[in-house]
Amino acid sequence: MASDRASQRAFLGIAALLFAASAAVTIGWCASMSAMGEMPMPGGWTMSMAWMRMPGQTWPGAAASFLGMWVVMMVAMMLPSLVPMLRRYRQAVGRTGRLGRLTALVGVGYFLVWTVFGIAAFPLGVALAAVEMEEPALARAAPIAVGVVVLVAGSLQLTAWKARQLACCREAPGRGRTLPADAGTAWRHGLRLGLHCSFCCAGPMAVLLVIGVMDLRAMAVVTAAITVERLAPAGERVARAIGAVVLGAGLLLIARAAGLG
After folding, report:
1. Separation CA 32–CA 10 (nearest Å)
2. pLDDT tens-digit profile of 196-236?
């Protein structure tokens, strides 16, 4: 019907605008943070300013600033793979005058999960940064630790657990399934999508956090990897191929940090 096509166009148009706006803000944020430089650390690496307070800034202010930018960054990174899941949700709900509001509620629930992820990531990053600044020996070991994290992340991509989480993301809601058109169901569906997605993306996101949360190139690569493994016809094989590449990168990082490469 014409009304269904108009609703679909409106949905895709809003998603495109939201992606463009969040990507532009993320690029601006990364550019401003990069202009401030990074802190040289023992071991020949530099620490991101994302884990530090700006002059005159309180820790609650720094946390709020990080969290705001984290949410915007997650919208830019996750929206390309979320849109197909939202389309399937809309098909499962069927025709209703509240479809736009219900879709928005699913999206809010989904990104709430990623917000909680950011709330947990910031104090952990700050604590690690503080320890590395106070203990030069630990700072020198950081490049090897980064390589180990990347290695573990690559290994995770090859597990049956990863395959199960990826299948949940690729098929939710299941084909032929119908969902009630009510706010409670939409909210719970968004939270479930967010949980499955955060589990599925644990490896790539760990790589992003240790390689550089403000690095636009790393963001682009991780976004592409997440999107392709969700949308490609052979997603599980793609995930394993990504895992193999990440394993190789982890080994290379460890070899370089140990002075072997």
Report:
1. 33
2. 999 999 999 999 998 888 788 899 999 999 999 999 888 89
- Angle between the 59-93 and 183-200 helix axes, to the nearest 10 degrees? 110
Neighbours of 40 (CB within 10 A): 10
105-128 pLDDT, tens per residue?
Answer: 999 999 999 999 999 999 998 888
CB under 8 Å, gap of 24 or more: what pairs does 141-145 form?
141/43, 142/41, 142/43, 142/45, 143/43, 143/44, 143/45, 143/253, 143/256, 143/257, 144/254, 144/257, 144/258, 145/210
> What separation in angstroms does the CA of 249 have from each of 92, 144, 146?
40, 12, 11
Dihedral-angle region of residue 94 (phi above 0 means left; psi in -120 to 50 means alpha; beta otherwise): left
pTM (two decimals): 0.89
Of 210, 191, 207, which Cα lies nearest the Cα of 124? 210
SS (H, E, C) the chain: CHHHHHHHHHHHHHHHHHHHHHHHHHHHHHHHHHHCCCEEECCCEEECHHHCCCCCCCHHHHHHHHHHHHHHHHHHHHHHHHHHHHHHHHHHHCCCCCHHHHHHHHHHHHHHHHHHHHHHHHHHHHHHHHHHHHCHHHHHHHHHHHHHHHHHHHHHCCCHHHHHHHHHHHHCCCCCCCCCCCHHHHHHHHHHHHHHHHHHCHHHHHHHHHHHCCCHHHHHHHHHHHHHHHHCCCHHHHHHHHHHHHHHHHHHHHHHHCCCC
Q: Please say whether the beta carbons of 172 and 193 come within 8 A.
A: yes
Query: And the tokens for 98?
Result: 């509240």
Enter the tokens of residue 119. 């709330």
